[in-house]
């Protein structure tokens, strides 16, 4: 099992990032790839989970051990796979997710892609009262932000954010509802993704 990988971010796509570790490129699926910046100067540590199935061998990566722990707990829920767990973590607000589980707020949980009423109830049944260790240690801010002002950069960032939302499983019609209000602002891709998720989860 690979616990973590230390290296440089070589590429960022809507679905995954590529970490260059001593000349070897690791493709790693993350909750919000655009929260990472391509850089050959800044070395990062990403905590990994190796998912093995008959037809799949994939690496999932997280900014903290606590984020990884929450992902693994979600995977233990019947009906939640890696893609569904990533979509839940992509909101960037684990405390909201944990609070919804503890308060049995299935109305909030069904807002995530692929989570219906039955799966939401299963999440609550399986995880309520079992997230104390994660909640106590969880970093409040998963993603960092940078201000950018150039209009063309913002448009490019918005397009990347829309692609990332599609990868997470949000439908075209849902994205179209929030896109106009997002276009009025000049943000980074990461900020667009987070703001869109906040609007989609309301």
Order of helices and strands: EEEEEHHHHHHHHH
* Sheet with most strands: strand arrangement: 1-2-3-5-4
Annotation field: number of helices: 9
What proportion of the residues is helical, as a percent range? 40-55%
Shape: globular
Keywords: ATP-binding, Cytoplasm, DNA damage, DNA recombination, DNA repair, DNA-binding, Helicase, Hydrolase, Nucleotide-binding
GO molecular function, one term: four-way junction DNA binding
Pfam families: HHH_5 (PF14520), RuvA_C (PF07499), RuvA_N (PF01330)
GO cellular component, one term: Holliday junction helicase complex
Structure, explained:
- The protein is an alpha+beta fold.
- It folds into 3 domains: 4-62, Nucleic acid-binding proteins (OB fold (Dihydrolipoamide Acetyltransferase, E2P)), CATH 2.40.50.140; 65-137, 5' to 3' exonuclease, C-terminal subdomain (DNA polymerase, domain 1, Orthogonal Bundle), CATH 1.10.150; 151-200, no CATH class.
- Helix content is 45%, strand content 21%.
- It has a 5-stranded mixed barrel.
- The radius of gyration is 17 Å and the shape is globular.
- Residues 138-152 have low confidence and may be disordered.
């Amino acid at each position: 099992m690979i616990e973590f990988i230390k290296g440089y971010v070589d590429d960022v796509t809507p679905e995954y990032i590529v970490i260059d570790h001593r000349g070897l490129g690791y493709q790693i699926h993350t909750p919000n790839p655009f929260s990472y910046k391509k850089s050959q100067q800044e070395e990062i540590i990403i905590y990994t989970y190796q998912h093995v199935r008959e037809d799949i061998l994939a690496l999932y990566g997280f900014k903290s051990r606590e984020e990884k722990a929450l992902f693994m707990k979600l995977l233990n829920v019947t009906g939640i796979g890696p893609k569904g767990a990533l979509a839940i973590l992509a909101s960037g607000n684990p405390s909201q997710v944990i609070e919804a589980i503890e308060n049995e707020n299935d109305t909030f949980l069904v807002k995530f892609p692929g989570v219906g009423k039955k799966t939401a109830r299963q999440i609550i049944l399986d995880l309520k009262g079992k997230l104390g260790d994660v909640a106590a240690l969880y970093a409040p801010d998963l993603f960092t932000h940078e201000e950018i002002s150039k209009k063309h950069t913002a448009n490019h960032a918005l397009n990347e954010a829309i692609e990332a939302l599609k990868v997470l499983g949000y439908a075209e019609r849902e994205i179209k509802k929030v896109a106009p209000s997002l276009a009025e602002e000049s943000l980074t891709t990461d900020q667009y993704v987070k703001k869109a998720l906040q609007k989609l989860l309301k």
